Amino acid sequence: VQLVESGGGLVQPGGSLRLSCAASGFTFSTYTMRWYCHAPAKEREWVVSISSAGVTTNDANSGKGRFTISRDNAKKKVYLQMNSLKPEDTAVYYCYVLLRPSVDYWGQGTQVTVSL
Are 24 and 76 in contact (CB under 8 A)? Predict the structure, then answer.
């Protein structure tokens, strides 16, 4: 199983980024995919999920309602569209999948830095 994120970078406040996660080694279309972020001096936190049926769920208290998750099962990719970025969104963003209890995988992460 591999999860490879891309699309991070440096962006000014108010800008947008689209992260991608390319998946391989499992039946992508049948699993819920998740994005997490890990900001400096904070714990890694869940951002948003998308089920195999395309139903999205996010943490209403995370302040990241500006982010939208989507997936392309044919390409085995999941995306995170990040709009109206703020400096507090600066973090490493990770793609995650739980295949079955105690069997989960993380990508290597992609750095997003929001700064002038």
Answer: yes
Segment 88-104 mean pLDDT: 97
Q: Are 24 and 49 in contact (CB under 8 A)?
A: no
Please give the structure tokens belonging to residue 42. Answer: 């904070």
- Pick the closest to residue 46 from 30, 58, 33, 28 (CA basis): 58
Euclidean distance between the first and final Cα of the chain, in Å?
A: 37
Q: CA 115 to CA 74: how far, in whole Å?
A: 35
Condensed to tens digits (0 to 9), the pLDDT of residues 41-79 reads 999 999 999 999 999 998 877 777 899 999 999 999 999
Tokens of 106: 């993380």
**53, exposed or middle or buried, with CB in 10 Å at 0-12, 13-18, 19+?**
exposed
* Length of the chain counted residue by residue: 116
CA dihedral 24, 27, 30, 34 (to 10 degrees): -20
Sign for the CA dihedral angle at 76, 104, 65, 50 comes to positive
